[in-house]
Amino acid sequence: MNDDLSLYDEEIKFPVEIEQYERKIYDLKQLIEISKGLNSTLDYNILIDSILLTCMGQMQLLKAGIFTHRSIDRQEFVLHRNYKGFEIDHKIEYVIPANSKLIQFLDMNFKCYTLDELKDILQDEPSLESLICLNPSLIVPLKGKGTLNGIIILADRINQKGFSESDKEYMLNIASLAGIAIQNAYLYELATTDMMTRLKIHHYFQTILIEEREKSIKSSLPLSLIMIDIDNFKDFNDTYGHTCGDLVLKNVAMVISGSVRQSDIASRYGGEEFAVILPHTEINEAFKVAERVRTSVQKSYILYKRKKLGVTISVGVTQFNPSLDSTSKNIIERADKALYISKQQGRNKTTVLLTDK
Fold it and tell me: Which of 10, 272, 291, 333 is catalytic?
């Protein structure tokens, strides 16, 4: 009789075990697909968006956000602007210092935590304030290649359930994949960024211009190019020294970054010259962007040894023409020619040139 009961128990357990294995296989397949998706781009903002949407889809969430490094040279963690669902008080700066106890703890303990668990562990820790303001249900550290690259915050499951241990384990697997992807994107950003101006380097500009030309030809969508040169830049170096010249470069670069769209590619072309690639943009819109940059630079100034120093730029604008521009060199030379005309006509001017004549 006992043997029969034992056999009966095995028959009941067997289907349950199959279901568990099938679930694990399904989860592994999902993680493979997630890994492919996250590693399909090195664009930092697109990657962040992909990570958050993946978390929301896999965990059935209404809210997701991520704290990442502010910039290449500033290591504190800030809430990335691509957050989903959280209500943000724009008077508050959601910042977690890189040397805080919270970051040190998450770096040493790769686990998912609730906000209450972190409050109990890190009692009265000031760096928790940014999380407390957002009130997430789950906090997940992002680690890639042994480095803490960010913190994911999740809240409000659609089914209104909590997070089981298997949910937390699954989120850690996603976080591991996301952490590696962010580390790769960060290293790529570091390799393609001019450290003086924080704009893209010349080689990156040339590579992207080739790609955008090919896309423009295939899609029949417009592509424009802006070339920018700082007026009388040599005077700043000769009169005030190269430290002042560096400040001028940084200021103009900052204005360019703040005046163009996220889809535009701003780069330091060389010396005091800059270039902006504008995908899906025809010449009239490109002219507006160029004028926005020029007037913004004109309104700006730098402070050097208690002196206010104004800066102006000359600008050339052109649009890619497949019948004229067989190489990137053609479109660059035409934009540069437009820039030279602006210089000849008194500087602090934007010139549009559509043909080589």
Answer: 272
Euclidean distance between the first and final Cα of the chain, in Å?
101
Question: Quick count: other Cβ atoms within 10 Å of Cβ 283?
Answer: 18
Structure tokens at 143: 């680690």
**Average pLDDT of the chain, as a whole number:** 89
Q: What is the pLDDT of residues 57-66, one digit of tens each?
A: 888 999 999 9
Q: Catalytic: 272? A: yes
Q: How far apart, in whole angstroms, are the C-alpha atoms of residue 56 and residue 277?
A: 33
Contact (CB, 8 A) for 92 and 78 = no
Q: Are 64 and 52 in contact (CB under 8 A)?
A: yes
pTM of the model: 0.75
CA–CA separation, 30 and 36 (whole Å): 10
Instruction: Judge contact between 300 and 281, C-beta under 8 A.
Output: no
Across 192-282, the runs of DSSP E, i.e. the strands, are: 223-230, 265-270, 273-279
Cβ neighbourhood burial of 345 (10 Å; 0-12, 13-18, 19+): exposed
